[in-house]
User: Fold these one by one.
Assistant:
Number 1:
Amino acid sequence: MDLHEALFTTRAMRRLRPDPVPDEVVARILDAGVRAPAPGAVQTWRFVVVTDRAVMGRLAELWRTTRDQLLEVVPTLYHSEIQARSSQYLHDHFEDVPLLICGYGPPGSQMILAPALWSMCLAARAEGVGSTFTTLLTRAKDDVDAIVGVPADAGLELIAALPMGYPLGRWGVASRQPVQEVVFADAWGAPSRWQSSANHD
Ligand SMILES: Cc1cc2nc3c(=O)[nH]c(=O)nc-3n(C[C@H](O)[C@H](O)[C@H](O)COP(=O)(O)O)c2cc1C
């Protein structure tokens, strides 16, 4: 797949088929992820890849409890009805998610994990596998550790998790604020001479 197309169409895919993602595909996704940059190439990341149905079932319960708690505190979590429905679908079907990549790193290592995890999302896109970059489960990271067996003395914490699977829906270009609204040329406030091509809200 053309890199440009992958960059434009890798977006949150929460409606996933339960069909397993073949191991050779998972291997390519992971291998792409660990090529990501890190400061001084520290590579302090670790990944727990969940495909076991019983483990996913326990994580699904945790996902639902955590999301319910968050929605009680932040009822206006979603920007649109479409986003709310997509999130609800994942909530209702989490146990059917075929693949979950949990990214671990030293406390506060979001900047180290994010490039690797996003590379995995892009690599998944190239394989026709949908993904969503999520941090919800970090609100219950000790419980996740207990479920996937991360020892308390590992010195690592859950940074983000990627539910993945073949999508039920269609791929589309991610809708974002156009370049000309978020970019300045040379000085803050100066108009951008670069513009987005199309497909923006
Ligand atoms: C750091 C980060 C944390 C996120 N956490 C969650 C999450 O916990 N649950 C979720 O469903 N989506 C999560 N998302 C996905 C965003 O909601 C999504 O990227 C955004 O709504 C844009 O959606 P789109 O790519 O489909 O247009 C997260 C994204 C990022 C970058």
Number 2:
Amino acid sequence: MKRVSTKLRWFTSLFLLAFILSTVLAVPLPAQASSSQKVVIAKGTVYATNMYIIRSGKPGPVVMIVGGVHGNESAGYIAAGRMINTNIKKGTLIVLPRANKRAIDRNVRYYKGHGDLNRDFPTSKYGTPDGTLAKAIWAAVKKYDVDYLMDMHEGYNYSKLKSSSSVGQSLIYYPASYFRSMVNSIIYRLNSNISTSYKKFSLLRYPAKGSLTRATGQYLGCKSFIFETCTKQKLSTRIYYQQRAAKTLLSKLNMI
Ligand SMILES: [Zn+2]
């Protein structure tokens, strides 16, 4: 009886070993698995906000998507928030969905007494950002060596209307070599489904001095742009445009 149970144990062990070996050999593991990491920027301060780093595990561009620099531009921070689950096949995607969390919580452009976050970034080559939050965002762009930066915003009117002083429905980029064709294709893709001419997206250059996109484009060598939807449209439409622009950028870079 004892011999039988010993044999049985041997058979069971051998079978298990064979099973494990066949599983390991038959299913090759990816060379490097993708991963997603949540970090907190401006940690330990009232500005603390989550940032998501999605790594494909393969070499490629570093793209950063920012939402909520202005707290009352909801399509931007909602669309950015939906990008944190994006599967990428190369490079790194960094998403900072609720950059100015305190302003978002109060649904205001900027938090009372703190001025406009999008004018707090350097305006000269050796300049430094103003304030804790701009410093933390600036440090993140440098730390992760961002190549492309999309900042999601909204305007109150259509940029193509002559009476409008708003930049709603536009893409404003900092000119860099080979970047124009990329942003042009984003605009082209969006406009191909818009029939009303004044509702089409405009392609503009030079974001305002002191803005995140201007400073990263001019002083850090990022290919940066602001993407502006128009709040005269339905929220779901604006979120769709924001995500479509972001996904077009990622697909042009062969990341999705
Ligand atoms: Zn804005």
